[in-house]
Design goal:
It is built from six helices and three strands, in the order H-H-H-H-E-E-E-H-H. It is an alpha+beta fold. It has one domain. Helix 1 runs parallel beside helix 2.
């Protein structure tokens, strides 16, 4: 495979991973918002900004799962899927936020993902290296988890006796934040 073909393949694999992970992040956020309408969860309003961490969406969903309510019956399944995704968090961060460059010294199918991240101790520099086969393995690892989790969340929506979140289920509803396709930011 020539260098341009390898770069295009890396971009394709990165996009597949990010899309699948985004589906999970969307499903978790939608589940949190949907569940908050149920009487068992009304004391946990709002949607956390971050995905992970002690105040993130994953932590919020774990809190909801620990409460006595209709989500409790899905605690083990959802908890298992979330644990599987937690194992991919660090790589997810690099694939989502890192700058990808070809690593010519390591081989024609090797890439580096570099990024800066802020922490309470200052700013860290991060580096992740991956070959095309390693990126493909990440895509293959995330696919069954993403499919299973999003399918379960869809089934849960139908068991919660709450009104639907209109924009989430109705494609003709106004776009979030007032944006429409073709809108320039």
């Amino acid at each position: 495979m020539d260098e341009l073909a390898a770069i295009n393949e890396a971009i394709r694999l990165r996009g597949m991973f990010v899309q699948r992970y985004a589906g999970v992040e969307y499903a978790v956020a939608a589940l949190i918002l949907h569940a908050q309408q149920h009487e068992a969860y009304t004391s946990h309003k709002g949607l956390p900004l971050s995905w992970s961490g002690s105040k993130g969406k994953v932590a919020r969903l774990h809190k909801l799962l620990a409460l006595d309510g209709p989500l409790a019956q899905h605690r083990d399944d959802l908890g298992g899927y979330l644990a599987s995704f937690a194992e991919l968090d660090e790589r997810r961060n690099f694939l989502v936020y890192g700058i990808m460059t070809a690593d010519r010294l390591a081989g024609p199918d090797a890439f580096r993902f570099r990024m800066f991240r802020s922490s309470t101790d200052g700013t860290d520099y991060g580096l992740m290296s991956a070959t095309l086969s390693e990126m493909e393995a990440l895509v293959e690892a995330v696919q069954p988890i993403a499919t299973s989790l999003t399918a379960l969340v869809g089934r849960i929506f139908h068991t919660l006796s709450v009104p639907p979140i209109v924009a989430m289920f109705d494609p003709s509803a106004p776009a979030p934040f007032g944006l429409k396709l073709g809108t320039r930011l």
